[in-house]
Known about the structure:
Blueprint: E1 2-9, E2 16-21, H1 27-40, E3 48-49, E4 59-67, E5 70-77, H2 86-94
Parallel strand pairs: 3-5
Antiparallel strand pairs: 1-2, 1-4, 4-5
Amino acid sequence: xxxxxxxxxxxxxxxxxxxxxxxxxxxxxxxxxxxxxxxxxxxxxxxxxxxxxxxxxxxxxxxxxxxxxxxxxxxxxxxxxxxxxxxxxxxxxxxxx
Length: 97
């Protein structure tokens, strides 16, 4: 599984991009990432998740997951982040890999 993660916006407007591949991650990290993607039910989420109350200076996230020839991208703002997706976003954001 390959995951591309992009965070944009925020007060400073700094962009952050990372790519993760479970085939090259340490086994414990790959297993955790797979668990988080499954728990988020990412392939069932809509491509765009918006908030009824947009706020300036908040982060915007774009997550693309490629697995077994299937690809799905979800774009959302920090204020529209569903609880099921929060642990995955936090892991992707904090990972140094």
